[in-house]
């Protein structure tokens, strides 16, 4: 596997792992944290949203953007497209596992 495909797979895998961890924590929120409904609930949700956007954004677009800026435009665009394709494939697989039989 060439380096761009390998890097894109690792970027997509890192994103999937992060999403899985956050999703698992949210799914088990009542078991992990004491449920509270106060002013900090929407603040915490928005902070998690912003943190997630920063982490997944850096995994998906960080390296391709650096490559593009460094003059490796073609490789940077390819890395971005490959990463998005891996994420799309993973998303399709997850949805297919949820189909009723």
Low-pLDDT sequence parts: none
Could you say which structural class the secondary elements and strand pairing correspond to? mainly alpha
How many β strands by DSSP? 0
Tell me the helix content: over 70%
Main traits of this protein?
mainly alpha, about 100 residues
Short description:
The chain contains four helices and no strands. It is mostly helical.
SSE blueprint and pairings:
Blueprint: H1 3-27, H2 29-32, H3 40-69, H4 73-97
Helix pairs in contact: 1-3, 1-4, 3-4
Write structural notes for this entry.
The protein has 101 residues and is mainly alpha-helical. The protein has one domain. Helices cover 83% and strands 0% of the residues. The protein is built from 4 helices and no strands. The protein is flat. The N and C termini lie far apart (35 Å).
């Amino acid at each position: 596997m060439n380096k761009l495909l390998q890097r894109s797979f690792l970027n997509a895998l890192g994103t999937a792992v992060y999403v899985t961890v956050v999703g698992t924590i949210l799914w088990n929120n009542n078991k992990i944290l004491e449920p509270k409904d106060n002013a900090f609930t929407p603040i915490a949700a928005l902070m998690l949203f912003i943190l997630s956007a920063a982490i997944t954004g850096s995994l998906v677009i960080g390296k391709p953007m650096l490559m593009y800026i460094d003059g490796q435009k073609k490789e940077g665009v390819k890395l971005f497209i490959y990463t998005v394709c891996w994420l799309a494939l993973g998303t399709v697989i997850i949805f297919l596992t949820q189909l009723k039989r």
